[in-house]
């Protein structure tokens, strides 16, 4: 299967393998704007597992062997001639999306929406779960000494949480309803709290995930069982908070959960759709529209690395508890199995044989 | 039937009938903040016809006889003691929604979302299709001499268009896709053009409506037939404009049309849901979410009368062509029949027997 | 002097004294929308001292004896007939500004800008530094059990900080430059941190104030001496942060400090002007304009009490260290003297003889 | 003098002269992302004249001979290998600012604020008043057939107006106060009207300029004489409009005029500072701050060409009346003299000897 291969090629360790993103459609750009990185820590994401298992997500189909991995950090080992802000030895976090064209999206600061963007481990673009990897230096961010490689790798999922909370407009005193306490729900929780949310209620099917959510600062946990009606669940969230939440952040992709998010949210509020489920979803649209509850999607993130690093460096957010498992790159299959089975939260692959520290 | 009665009571012409909005839950407020108006022109809205025919819309049920009408203008005949900005003889346009409580929505300027708002002809609140009518003076706006009573009445539907275009973020050079060329689609068209939209494409089932849209400034018209797939129709709109529209304003409430609106809109754009159809609607949510196409509802309007009057007075928008029929109040049933049969666009009832001019 | 008198009248303890705000220009409103409060804690503000000493601030002149005080909390002892959300015995924080007219500012949620607003202790409106006080119930907010009266009174200055940080757009990872570590600079610091600011540098003339700022979370302190040039000081702030701040919040009103704020701020950033100094101020306008550094004033606050209470109740902000002195109401003159001499930060007057607790 | 030389070098007509913008700090980029243009029409701007006369503006000093001109359009004669959206023969308008680094400003869509941006005719970067000129193709925009070269060149000043009106938040029904009826004040007027402003009052010292403003749609003109006090002038503007303007756009740079703009603007409104005068300016800051009148600068523009072209193509704005004089490139000195003497509004230089049409 392509899936076996794609995982296999992650083990490629030649510094010559060209995984370059080819920024701004120029062929010889690597010499100019790229850096070559020795990879250190790469987190496994649900989408990695999905490509591995099914060889596709929606219209993105893995046709050729593809390197997986997009939650990553590493150390600079070579620097293109045009690179000014990085030097050999710098520890960096990698933003996996690099726009290829200077289109209207890029020019207006919404480069994540550029249809031709390069993105690690979204076919046909290779990811960075490997020994050495080349990337556009403008999308590599130097880590301060007090931020670990693993924190650097976790900036990728954290960025989803930042972008989601920004799209939601979470602010001082916000009450927030988060659906789903997987890695993404949890980063949304962490960010919402850092932005001043006064109370967060979070749902999940599994008590262990809710328990971790509590540790990370959730004020209320709601265990969801198959039998609860969306309207009832929305009511429960409201009862826990004492008010209807200003904002709901949906991180499961499950239809009934999206419906719950809409019913729960206060008039004039926002439902942010992070979870991605079926193509077509049935929603209580009149309920949303006549209460002006906006429905806003999230596609990855943009411009989040600098603020994430600022938050990590100043100790304002703590993502370390998210890492529950670590494997050396050689045990990649075992690592992927762990994530596939839903064990723990975030599994880290350690790509540097000399340094397997966080 | 309640419907017969509700229409009947519109004919009540006693100046003593108390249709007061009872602002801020104080019983004797009329003497203070209200004005008594001699009604002049009242437009018939689809919702009026619906209450007349079916006695209900969604959860709003007509239980007692109810006066219809909420698109209205009249002349001040009596002034409460606290009213400073109006005097007897002033011609005014009436904003039909008056908040009753100083809740968070009112305090933050989103009074249209206040759950306890008074609203003309939404049960159990009486409307203003009658000879004399009392209303909170703060929601009556003096008309300049060069704005007619009918233009004043048309500010109500125009306000829906203003609020929709503002929620959509229509601005200089916007390309706009409007679904439905009924009265609401047409006011959205007029406002979008006034806000600087460069190109508007509009859809409808009926060629007559599209023809009027063309007269009012639509750059392209798209006749919809039952057979067209949403994705195909979206493609057609794009082809006409040469680009995907920045913004879609849905004014039919029909499921396939809402789907079309989503498919058509450019990444990072906005779909505004004005049309209200079935409670549950199936949508291509992943398509919207991963392209960050926001879905924003519209519930009436807020703070639109002053800017609408400014636009009418300065001649920047022309809503007069919308009025296709006029009837004296005595022929209310005939007038309602006309709207019920979908003949013309806006039917005006003339409530002042001495002055039936526009 | 009027100043003696105005302080004197604060001691008035008759429950019959009518300090009512007379909301929405209706004479008999107290019976409806007001509550009578037994005052508990009232903080002294610089403006109170100024009126006491000079009898005027800018164009606001104390002509008749005036009750001072606007940072206050108390207990409900009587309730108007239209009041639903409060009952006798409730502990409340008082928002001192109550709009009198339903003008465009009020309708659009910017009621603090309404020119005819009632405001406690801004002549000719009486304040609430007294035993009993009547206020519009819509601007009295119930305190949860875990929020003290003094915290309730401190919501007033805290609100200035909230509004300032909101106008500044402080968000996750913001770097913030605060000029002046008086009560207002310190609440801005607290709020900026709660909103996710990663690093705050704060200035003052006095080391004691900077020391408290450090305790409250300031990352860097900058002692200002008369000799430093604005450009040099701006450079120092940049050096401490490692970057130019996204945002500067000016809380001294001193010309050179406002200039410093402009020079320091990053292109595309915001300078918020909270401090009020001389009428005319000389600014490096080209520097600001060509770097699109916005200059935004702050006039008090709007809609901040609910979120402040949410933050206090959830323990997300701690304002208790701001209170450095307490006096019973009988010792008001001594209390005012303390503030006048710039001793400590916030002086609290305790108006309830039975309960002098925080 | 450098000034003579800089003008002289505009006459250079060798297609080999490298005026390339060297985008993204890569030396051999021209072959990839640039286009070579045969210049057609170039407008003369006040800054061009200033460099010619004084050899400097603020800190920008002309040290080496510099080609002037930045309001320009031309025809593509050669295309870099990476250019997809343009082909030989295309008529294009040129956006003169091209960011050189992918810094935070560029990534967030505010590239005009990037400190290292290339900008035509801002030393040391050459402009495009010449026969042939190379430019980054991503900042060249194809003109539709119904938009002339001169309209294309006028997009540059028009963009200043677009950016100013956007920063001001001009929208439906806005009342706008524009100070100065030079080319920049006039484009602000045109754009404000296109965005739905209901009434615009404009000032100038000279009746001829006010007369043209009237032709272009200004509702009121105010002739300024040396003797008028800022507060009085602000009052006059209010009297003409009947209300205080929502927005003031300052296009003179004169201190008293900026003061007037502040006094005139309504609470909660915006003063946009476009005009650039002395380094230090004395302002009524308390007046602005306590009424929350924001002061926002404008530095050129960003992302305005596409919407400007859309507006011109759809006939929604008409900039043609701005061109009052035309000269062949050979008569550049005469053309510059005309602008220097303040004769007419916009002087066009015609660079294509075969085609001197608009
Ligand atoms: N939009 C984006 O850019 C983006 C980025 C990353 C992830 N995602 C999506 O976000 C979602 C969450 O990602 P994740 O990595 O946390 O996935 P996950 O599968 O680990 O977590 C989902 C959680 O939701 C819980 N859940 C399932 N059904 C539920 C229900 N009905 N009610 C409450 N909880 C329920 C599960 O128990 C699980 O803990 C996925 O759909 C993923 O595709 C989107
Ligand atoms: N949200 C609000 O505050 C608000 C306010 C007023 C009206 N509305 C809603 O707006 C909608 C429009 O109001 P109206 O008064 O113009 O109604 P209308 O019925 O007169 O107009 C609807 C138009 O849509 C056309 N149409 C129907 N199906 C279509 C399709 N599949 N594709 C294209 N066009 C189609 C019809 O031919 C008709 O011309 C209604 O649903 C109404 O309830 C909402
Ligand atoms: N805009 C509003 O709505 C609003 C509301 C409240 C207060 N204010 C204003 O905010 C300002 C601060 O209020 P406060 O109660 O904290 O006053 P304060 O006088 O107690 O504090 C001002 C602080 O600034 C310091 N300072 C003075 N000059 C300085 C300089 N050059 N550099 C650095 N620090 C300097 C002082 O040492 C002092 O600690 C006052 O001007 C007040 O009028 C405005
Ligand atoms: N911020 C930017 O990005 C940007 C871009 C272009 C131009 N500008 C600036 O905009 C300003 C206007 O440019 P322009 O090309 O129209 O210049 P201009 O000199 O042709 O026009 C200025 C107009 O203001 C009038 N004026 C002078 N003093 C006045 C007063 N006290 N009251 C009223 N009117 C007065 C003059 O008679 C003249 O008509 C200049 O300062 C220029 O530097 C700024
Ligand atoms: Zn992922
Ligand atoms: Zn209606
Ligand atoms: Zn105060
Ligand atoms: Zn110019």
Q: Could you please describe the fold and organization of this structure?
A:
The structure is a homotetramer of 358-residue chains. Chain A has 358 residues and is an alpha/beta fold. The first copy, chain A, has 12 helices and 18 strands. Helix content of chain A is 31%, strand content 22%. In chain A, strands 1, 4, 5, 8, 9, 17 and 18 form a 7-stranded mixed β-sheet that branches. A 6-stranded parallel β-sheet of chain A has the order 12-11-10-13-14-16, sandwiched between helices. In chain A, strand 17 (323-328), helix 12 and strand 18 form a beta-alpha-beta unit. The longest helix of chain A has 20 residues, at 149-168. Chains in contact: A-B, A-C, A-D, B-C, B-D, C-D. One zinc ion binds at residues 45, 47, 70 of chain C.
SS strand fraction of chain A: 15-25%
Number of helices of chain A: 12
Q: Overall pLDDT of chain A, averaged?
A: 91
In terms of per-residue confidence, which ranges of chain A show pLDDT below 50 for 5 or more consecutive residues? 1-30
Shape of chain A: globular
Q: What small molecules does this complex bind?
A: nicotinamide-adenine-dinucleotide, zinc ion
Distance between the termini of chain A: 32 Å
Q: Of all protein chain pairs, which has the greatest interface, and how many residues does each chain bring to it?
A: A-B, 37 and 37 residues
Which H/E pattern describes the elements of chain A? Answer: HHEHEEEEEHEEEHEHEHEHEHEEHEHEHE
Oligomeric state of this protein: homotetramer
Question: Largest beta sheet of chain A, briefly?
Answer: 7 strands, mixed
DSSP strand count of chain A: 18
Structural class of chain A: alpha/beta
As a percent range, the share of helical residues of chain A equals 25-40%
């Amino acid at each position: 299967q392509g899936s076996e291969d794609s995982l296999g090629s992650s083990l490629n360790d030649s510094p010559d393998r060209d995984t370059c993103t080819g920024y701004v459609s120029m062929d010889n750009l690597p010499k100019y704007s790229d850096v070559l990185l020795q990879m250190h820590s790469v987190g496994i994401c649900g989408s990695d597992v999905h490509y591995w298992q099914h060889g596709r997500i929606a219209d993105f189909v893995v046709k050729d062997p593809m390197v997986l991995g997009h939650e990553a950090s590493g150390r600079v080992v070579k620097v293109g001639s045009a690179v000014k802000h990085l030097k050999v030895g710098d520890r960096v976090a990698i933003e996996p999306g690099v726009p290829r064209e200077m289109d209207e999206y890029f020019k207006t600061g919404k480069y994540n929406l550029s249809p031709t963007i390069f993105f690690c481990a979204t076919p046909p673009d290779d990811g960075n779960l490997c020994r050495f990897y080349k990337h556009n230096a403008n999308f590599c961010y130097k880590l301060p000494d007090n931020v670990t490689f693993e924190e650097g790798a976790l900036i990728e999922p954290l960025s989803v949480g930042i972008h989601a909370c920004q799209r939601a407009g979470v602010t001082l005193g916000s009450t927030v309803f988060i659906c789903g306490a997987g890695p993404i729900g949890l980063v949304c929780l962490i960010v919402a709290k850092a932005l001043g949310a006064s109370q967060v209620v979070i749902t999940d099917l599994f008590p262990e995930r809710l328990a971790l959510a509590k540790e990370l600062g959730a004020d209320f946990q709601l265990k969801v069982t198959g039998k609860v009606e969306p309207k009832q669940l929305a009511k429960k969230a409201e009862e826990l908070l004492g008010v209807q939440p200003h904002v709901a952040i949906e991180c499961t992709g499950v239809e009934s959960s999206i419906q719950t998010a809409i019913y729960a949210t206060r008039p004039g509020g926002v439902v942010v759709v992070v979870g991605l489920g079926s193509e077509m979803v049935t929603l209580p649209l009149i309920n949303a529209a006549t209460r002006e509850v906006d429905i806003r999607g999230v596609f990855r993130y943009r411009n989040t690395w600098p603020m994430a690093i600022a938050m990590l460096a100043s100790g304002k957010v703590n993502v370390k508890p998210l890492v529950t498992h670590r494997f050396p790159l050689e045990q990649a299959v075992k690592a992927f199995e762990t994530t596939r089975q839903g064990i723990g939260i975030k599994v880290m692959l350690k790509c540097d044989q000399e340094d397997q520290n966080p």
